[in-house]
UniProtKB/TrEMBL annotation:
One of its GO terms (cellular component) is plasma membrane. Keywords: ATP-binding, Nucleotide-binding, Transport. This is Cell division ATP-binding protein FtsE. InterPro entries: AAA+_ATPase (IPR003593), ABC_transporter-like_ATP-bd (IPR003439), ABC_transporter-like_CS (IPR017871), ABC_transpr_LolD-like (IPR015854), MacB-like_ATP-bd (IPR017911), P-loop_NTPase (IPR027417). Residues 6-227 form the ABC transporter domain. The keyword ATP-binding applies. One of its GO terms (molecular function) is transmembrane transporter activity. It comes from Flavobacterium caseinilyticum. Belongs to the ABC transporter superfamily.
Length: 228
């Protein structure tokens, strides 16, 4: 039985008709933690957008959580995203709703109906990120790190096979970034596969893991050393 949660073969990533990355070959197994690094414009976000269906895969073969990316239709995308948790740099919380209401919005949109089951799930995921007592807070009442923890909790609601984190610490200070990484690493230690795009090399040194670099239209593995 294959343990692969993501497989890309001879893929070219396009953004607005322009080739951004070419000859991408990648296999990610269940339970892995993978960094994707590179300068702004090197293709990190375009790759991530292709993985969650925001950009079409038009050249090469791609399979993610049993979805064929090359054959993905628009009405397949919501079903794909129920099996993938996505964490963005800018949190994307609904500003006019409490933390609990943000969670309820996602659960109702993905087919949950039992009020008891939804409340239990919300409490479960908020507890995993240390935010169980913040359910009645509005997003503007939270710090950036707290908002990102809520965003991570939201990504866990439908028990995804894979979490895609696109620059999740990009708007955070170094200490808060490290705290968010500790949350992600704990989630990974409990069996979740995580792919994280980042430009924060200090985090890679503090929390080493398999690392791929986007550079000169290619993506390749690099070896990271832990800081002394």
């Amino acid at each position: 039985m294959s343990q692969s949660v993501l497989s890309l073969k001879n893929v070219t990533i396009y953004q607005e008709g322009k080739s951004i990355l070419s000859d991408v070959n990648l296999d990610v197994n269940h339970g892995e933690f993978l960094y994707i690094i590179g300068k702004t414009g090197s293709g990190k976000s375009s790759l991530m957008k292709t993985l969650y269906g925001d950009l079409p895969l038009i050249e090469g073969e791609g399979n993610i959580v049993e979805f064929d990316l090359a054959a993905l239709k628009e009405n397949d995308i919501p079903f794909l995203r129920r099996k993938i948790g996505i964490v963005f740099q800018d949190f994307k919380l609904l500003p006019d709703r409490t933390v609990n209401e943000n969670m309820l919005f996602v659960l109702k949109a993905t087919g949950w109906s039992s009020a008891v089951d939804m409340q239990n799930k919300i409490e479960e995921v908020l507890a995993k990120v240390g935010m169980r007592d913040f359910g009645k807070k509005m997003p503007h009442q939270l710090s950036g790190g707290e908002q990102q923890r809520v965003a991570i909790a939201r990504a866990l609601l439908n028990d995804p096979e894979l979490i895609l984190a696109d620059e999740p610490t990009g708007n955070l200070d170094p200490q808060t970034s490290a705290e968010v990484l500790e949350v992600l690493k704990k989630i990974n230690a409990n069996g979740k596969t995580i792919i994280m795009a980042t430009h924060d090399y200090a985090l890679l040194m503090k929390f080493p893991a398999k690392t791929l670099k986007c550079e000169d239209s290619k993506i390749f593995e690099v070896i990271q050393q832990r800081m002394a």
